[in-house]
Amino acid sequence: MKRLVLITILVVVLIGIFWFVFSLNDNTSDEALTQASSNTVGQDNSGRIEEVESVPGMRQYIHNYLGFNFLYPERFRVGGFYEGESGEVILVQSQEGEVNEGFQIYITPLPEDVTLSPSLIMSELPGTLVDDPKQITLDGAVGIMFESNGEGFDGKSYEIWFTKAGNLYQVSSHIDFKTNLQDIIGSWHF
Fold it and tell me: CATH number of the domain at 2-29+78-182, please?
């Protein structure tokens, strides 16, 4: 659990940095995803993008190793990078440069199975706000969604966290993107 705390604290600090750097790089293509040869989350953390003919205006992100996928608006771009043994980050952001339109997925391996709850999050991450929490099930993954005080999102973030197959998925966005994020994550499949 201590490792989870350290990783999550690091994530909170890095969210702002990554979001800022990613938003400055308007030339990032969907295919420009970082690949790594060694990964505790997966041996091949790259993803691929596919057009979705049955859903106009949407694309599908498919994670090659972990096998999950989700739909996102075609006006968004996807990028990602591997952070060594601590996990990987997938960024999905508007190509128009709207800073509040987009989200980040931080995937970290868990040392043990956990059931996410407000009390666990607040005990592991003192000072983290867990406001209006709701338990969720997402294609078999159990988790929680809540409003928080994410520093990388001007102190107001929307969080959807869940666990599946030994990994913690922390999906974070600006609070203003809450409804859109719920719709996008609602399309998530493992």
Answer: 3.40.1000
